[in-house]
Amino acid sequence: MTLLEAFKALFLGLLEGATEFIPVSSTGHLILLQSLFGLDGHADRTFAILIQFGAILAILSAYFARLWSIALALPHDPKARRFVVGVLIAFLPAAVVGVLARDFILGVLFDPRVVCTTLILGGFVLLAVDRANLPQRHAEATRFPLSMYFWIGVIQCLAMIPGVSRSGATIVGAMLMGSSKRAAAEFSFFLAMPTMAGAFVWELGQSYDRLSADETTKIVIGFVAAFVAGLVVVKTLLDYVSRHGFALFAWWRIAVGSVGLVGLFAFG
Hints:
- It is a single chain.
- The chain is mainly alpha-helical.
- The protein has one domain (3-267).
- 79% of the residues lie in helices and 0% in strands.
- It is built from 12 helices and no strands.
- The protein has helices spanning 3-19, 26-37, 42-50, 52-62, 64-73, 78-109, 112-131, 146-156, 166-176, 181-207, 213-244, 247-267.
- It is globular.
């Protein structure tokens, strides 16, 4: 592995961690940059999925005390059990769709044109929802109704299309169903853990025997970078969206998607 390849892995890992938990589509950004770098083979798509585990560990680190308290409360606290069940209910739709549609997603949807289009459309949706005067009936992510957890999980399936954004779909779905902006963002953190862990385990099981030593090293570099960047974002995002909302991320999506489409039409 060359120094340039190591730098690319480091940069892509930092990008993954920085964008995984904000509604701009980390996978979409990785696809666009991998296309720019000429990294659009199967191993590169596997890289984009596997380095997400670094971002998962960032959530676990930032939320360890809270998650540990929930785990300790499970035997005697029905509210804790209900929340865990709610997260699993929200996770199941994406798990089913991801397993059934994996080959189609990787083979067809991992396309820069798809990413740019969904970035722009998703940006306008996020902007409209952020500006709408929606009722805020739920201010605590651990106390959503079970039916609400399920429908958030169904909406999250839209994020199988690269560029939609897993966190973006989760946040928009929660807000449309009466969540505050802070609670919607926080639940996207919780739902990320089983969703991303499931994608990591499934992709690793499908690809581990085809990964070379160099590819494995690049994944490790990207993994560590994603962890560091993800930890910074997780610790700062909730306070930011509580004060400013999601407009900045919506305009960023629209700008990146527009520049990407211009570049694709101009240069191929």
